[in-house]
Amino acid sequence: MPKLKKAARGKHRWVAFRIEKILTRVQLKQLLVLCLEDYEWRLFDVLEAAGATLAILKIQLGDYQQVLSLINNSEDMATLTSSGKIRLARQRLDSFLGNDPSNAV
Predict the structure, then answer these.
(1) Which domain holds residue 95?
(2) For residue 5, is it within any domain?
(3) CATH classification of the domain holding 36
(4) pLDDT for res 95
(5) Are 15 and 41 in contact (CB under 8 A)?
(6) Which of 3, 56, 65, 73 has the fewest CB atoms within 10 Å, counting from its CB?
(7) Looking at per-residue confidence, does 5 or 55 come out higher?
(8) Beta strands 77-83; 12-19: pairing state
(9) DSSP labels for the chain?
(10) Does residue 64 lie in a domain region?
């Protein structure tokens, strides 16, 4: 079966967010299933930093505003940044951690 063209895959957003406690990837997925049960999402990066968990989530563009509201209204979770490109979301997440990849050699 041929690969879908870019336009047929649909638009999406990458959302970086922080959870105020340390969770494993499995625990975070379980939390997101409860919080975002009506939406399509995929968990990408999960990092542990300074007593918290940082993660990047891929969501459909049409669900963007609702998912942001659910995350921000959820206890212990807050969005940090979002982008149409995962590379930019990762760079911004690195800058929150104090790692500036633009200075890397």
Answers:
(1) 10-99
(2) no
(3) 3.30.70.150
(4) 87
(5) no
(6) 3
(7) 55
(8) antiparallel
(9) -PPPPHHHH--EEEEEEEESS---HHHHHHHHHHHTTTS-EEEEEEEEETTEEEEEEEEEGGGHHHHHHHHHHSTTEEEEEEESSHHHHHHHHHHHHT--GGG--
(10) yes
Contact 87, 81 (CB under 8 A): no
Say if CB 89 and CB 16 are below 8 A apart.
Answer: yes
Query: Residue 68: which pLDDT band, with cuts at 50, 70 and 90?
Result: very high
- Domain assignment present for residue 25? The answer is yes
| pLDDT score for 59 | 96
What predicted TM-score, i.e. pTM, was given to this entire model? 0.82
Tokens read off for 65 = 């505003």
* 104 within a domain of the structure (yes/no): no
Per-residue pLDDT of 6-56, as tens digits, reads: 777 788 999 999 999 999 999 999 999 999 988 999 999 999 988 899 999
Long-range CB pairs of 48-51 (<8 Å, 24+ gap) are 48/22, 49/97, 51/21, 51/22
pLDDT > 60? residue 100: no
